[in-house]
Structure formats: C-alpha cells, structure tokens
Amino acid sequence: MSKARAKGTKLESDVVAYMKANGWPHAERHAQHGHKDVGDVNIPGVVVECKATSRFDLAGWITELADEMDNASTDDGVVVVKRRGTTDVSEYYALMTFGQWCRLAKEAGL
User: Fold this and answer.
1) For residue 4, how many other CB atoms are within 10 A of its CB?
2) Residues 90-108: pLDDT tens digits?
3) Are 12 and 30 in contact (CB under 8 A)?
4) 5 — pLDDT class (breaks 50, 70, 90)
5) Bigger pLDDT: 7 vs 10
6) CATH class of 3-107
7) In 10 A of CB 47, how many CB atoms?
C-alpha cells in the first residue's frame, strides 16, 4: 500500500471511529460500487468524503462530493479534511456549500 493510500485509509478509519463514538453507530468505510464512487465514509443518507493532504482543492472536492452524492442518491454530504498538526478528529475541517449548510441549519430549526 502506498504511503498516500495508507494515510487516506487511516483518516477514513479515524473518522468512522469518531462518528461511531459520537452518535452515528452505522458509520462505515465504504468500498466503491463498481465505477460509481459513493464517498469514503457513509451513514444512511449521508456521504462523507475524506481528504488527508497538504494541498487544498476546495472547488474540486466540492465537485467530487456532488458527484458522489448523486451516485448515492442523497442531498447530504460533507468533505472532512485532516487538519495539519492534530490527530483530534473533532478539530478537522468540514466542508460543504453554503447552500447545503443553510438547508441543514433550517432543518435543524436554527
């Protein structure tokens, strides 16, 4: 396994462990379904794409997330980006479009 792939696998496993410990018992790493990528981590109805890189490509990641959400037939998804200098998953970055955030905040009653 390449070093980059190992970093990605570790990040995905850490995100799943964090989510399970914080109220999402069905979180799991997700293998590709044929040629249709549905994200790295999934909980029912939500796609989570994980990134462990020092090079940021926000627009590219949002486009990738949108494609994966389409493949998974869901409107909910987030990109989790490992934050340099910490292994605390709660301190990692969460990325989504502002429109997605507004919809989720409205549904949460904010």
Assistant:
1) 10
2) 999 999 999 999 998 999 8
3) no
4) confident
5) 10
6) alpha beta
7) 27
Rounded to an integer, what distance in angstroms lies between the CA atom of residue 66 and that of residue 59? 11
9-48: pLDDT as tens digits: 899 999 999 999 999 999 999 765 566 788 889 888 999 9
Helix (H, G, I), strand (E, B) or coil at 63: helix
Take residue 65 and report the two structure tokens written for it.
Answer: 């997330």
- Hey, what are 95's tokens? 């990325």
Count helices and strands in the chain by DSSP H and E runs? 3, 5
Read off the pTM. 0.88
What ranges do the domains of the chain cover? 3-107
Is the CB of residue 76 less than 8 Å from the CB of residue 65? no
| Pair of tokens at residue 100 | 């997605």
What lies within 8 Å, CB to CB, of 16 at 6+ separation is 27, 28, 29, 41
Please state whether beta strands 93-95 and 46-51 pair in parallel, antiparallel, or not at all (unpaired).
unpaired
Phi and psi angles of residue 74, each rounded to the nearest 5 degrees, phi first: -140, 155
